[in-house]
Amino acid sequence: MSETPQPAPNRWRVLALWMTGIAMVGTAGALLAPSQPAPDRARGAEPVELGVELHAPMVAARAIPSLAGLPEASTFSTIPAAPHDATADEVPDGQLVHPTTPVPVYDQPGGAAIAVLPTTQLGSDTWVPVIAKEPGWVQVLLPSRPNGSTGWLSTQDNTLTVRSTTDRIVIDRATFRLTLYRDHQQIGTWSVGVGTAAAPTPAGRTFVLASMIDAKQKFSPVIFPLGIHSVTFSTYGGGPGTTGIHGWPTTDVFGRPSSDGCIRVPADALATLTNPIDPVPIGTPVLIR
């Protein structure tokens, strides 16, 4: 890889470098050409109802005159007021929501707007897992810092598309294994590389944020950024330190701590995750333990 100084990279150019798990701050501009998002061929795209028992009165959303002053809830942002995920050891049930227009994120049902959830993330449609429901509201995982950030979205104005998936990804850092479940059945399990003691893969529940293809890099044909960040590095190569799942060109990294936080998977694992007939959808819940 050349490290010749180049103009400052844009978000697309630096993200594939972050996924290598190697912090090369200040040199990413010469490494990658603009990337393209992988097709979002998600399973279970049929709309489903956001069912919730009406055990309490519906709380109306506050009127928001403008979203312009609110930060975007993305992998590039920090939302200090975001509620923390209180049950980070349980995999969400697989219900996902997509904003059809940028929507406000609230700190509680009927509370203050703390961010804006955009319609796309890194070139893929935004799909976030639902972790709790109240009448007229859903609580979702956010891709922002700090890790474990959540927020509430109003379901009262028809701005959310809903679908569900039975896919789950579980990453066990102690045994260096990634397991894919579908319809409560194990589809595959693989030995993977995880973060070192100095730069561990962050624990908690998160989700597949996007699917990216970058022909200019050689370590992975597809990269899956997750909605979680390095707990050691504030940046990978000038980006926000996004942790992800990606391939690796050599096998010596599997079955041991070998990255700066990302999950390095073998080629057959990546092929299963990207199967063109039945790929893992954007928004798939991921549990890292």
Automatic annotation (TrEMBL):
Protein EC: 2.-.-.-
Gene3D superfamilies on file: L,D-transpeptidase catalytic domain-like (2.40.440.10)
Positions of transmembrane segments: 12-33
L,D-TPase catalytic domain segment(s): 167-289
InterPro entries listed in its UniProt record: LD-transpeptidase, LD_TPept_cat_dom, Transpep_catalytic_dom
Pathway, per record: Cell wall biogenesis; peptidoglycan biosynthesis
Keyword tags: Cell shape, Cell wall biogenesis/degradation, Glycosyltransferase, Hydrolase, Membrane, Peptidoglycan synthesis, Transferase, Transmembrane, Transmembrane helix
Keyword Hydrolase: yes
Catalytic residue positions: H246 (proton donor/acceptor), C262 (nucleophile)
CDD domains the record matches: YkuD_like
Gene Ontology molecular function, alphabetical: transferase activity
KW Cell wall biogenesis/degradation (keyword) present: yes
Family assignment from sequence similarity: Belongs to the YkuD family.
Protein name: L,D-transpeptidase
Organism of derivation: Amycolatopsis nalaikhensis
